[in-house]
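Comment on both lines for my students:
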Amino acid sequence: MLNPQSAQSVIDHGISLGADFAELFVEQSQSNIISTLSNQVQSVESGIDFGIGIRLVYGSKVLYGYTNKPEADELKRIMSELAAKDLRAPGISSTSFDYRQIEDLHSAQRTLSIDSEVESKVAFLMAADAAARAEGNMISQTRGTCRQKQQNIELFNSEGLHTADTRNYIRTGLTSIASDGSDQATGSWSDGGLLGWELQDDISAEKTGSEASRQALVNLGARPCPSGRMPVIIGNGFGGVIFHEACGHLLETTSVAKKASVFHDQMGQMIANPRVNAVDDGLLLKQWGSINIDDEGLDTQRTQLIKDGQLTSFLVDRIGAEQTGFSATGSGRRESYKFAPASRMRNTFIEPGDAELDDMIASIDKGIYASHMGGGSVQPGTGEFNFAVTEGYYIEHGKIKYPVKAATLISTGPAVLKEISMVGKDFSLACGMCGSVSGSVPTSVGQATLKVDDILVGGNA
């Protein structure tokens, strides 16, 4: 996308300004978003974006800018403006580029560069809507989306790196709204991955619609949730959002380097129940949070964060490695050329155990089964969180009694890790978007169903 000779002259200019490191991140992205409201197409949006991110590093200081213009003179001008207050005599020489071919582990077939396939996607969403409405006459409305993106990137840096990669993202889902005339409730279901619209071959419009409506109807008939401290079973898949938000961010060097994480000085220590094994894995085939290389051009990897309850690794980008002394883990990520990279999660999950759901339920006298989790809020640094339960059930004397609504789970990430006593076999992953200092990036969360022995449950019973 950028002429290598032009890129070399720009990188050389950055080093001539006294920078310790210079980098160009070139991106061209194509997107297509289809939205439906019940059985009507609400909007079809498509677009192309191009830009170049420019990063200069002086010691631990990062200077960043971006432009939509690829001309070398413009890129050099921005570099000079960025470095105006940090100019010094050159201390190093840049290295000539050596192009590195990346093996594509996540090749896609039905990509946007071939065809946006609007009609096929609309047909899928219409079939999902029909399946949702077939669940009962209390389903009043549905909202469907199908989002596809093709991101082409190219990287050049002063250490001689020149490489490129293509990423294809697809995600589709439906939200159902149930109403009995006085109350409303929602349910949703989605699928996605690092692939093209061939995702359609592995998912079902009928399941998407019926599962969204099932949740909505359960929630419509739910009772107010009891409150207080009690044991809670957290469901698989998106239940892993609690670990992601309340613990995962605390293991990124973005917070560790500033000592803004409670885990910054606990490497090698027991921070969780010995049954807990947590991983951040960028290698999982065609998963939503996977990547061939990170946004600094480093190979992605499987990173064992917690092993048998012991903290074994952080998530480390280039700057984080320099600041903390830990080796980079291929975790430097950014939303687009408009953001400097930072250490970020990829597919982050608690590994499965050997417990059975029935045994977890039977072990609880009074508690909650949070089968599906939603969003919430987290306090950076401490991991204090408040997460909504989107589908939950009250347990009494070892049996599920009735569905509950308006339940929230309140605790801290470090506290929850130590209260996990049982981890199930039913491992699954779920798609999400993660926001942080380098923008919003695709990540997967996951776990098997697990039991937390003691957590504060907020309810309005």
Summary: The chain has a mean pLDDT of 97.
